[in-house]
Amino acid sequence: MEIWINPACSKCRGALTLLDEEGASYTVRRYLEDVPSEDEIRSVLGRLGLEPWDITRTGEADAKELGLGEWARDAGSRERWISALAAHPKLIQRPIITADDGTAVVARTDEAVRDALGRSS
User: What are the entry keywords (predicted)?
Assistant: First the structure.
């Protein structure tokens, strides 16, 4: 199991605390320093069953500068969104846990973290 985190994020810290309390075995990826490639983003989107705009933090300053609010959210625009996430990793929703069963979850709640744990048993 791997968890993508920003250490400054309270949701990320909470997810790590819960993983530790549950004795989970996991790897931490500080995705702002170890930026995921476009292929890695495509892979995690497939594991999540989501589209890139579903995991984009549209309230961030970078999103406003890029005008993401005006971008189309359709198959033809998918690659543009993925490129933006790779170029501006701060836009990626966090934390994301990739479970051992090949799925992933956006772990913003204790419930979502426990869901990921259940998939990695």
Answer: Oxidoreductase
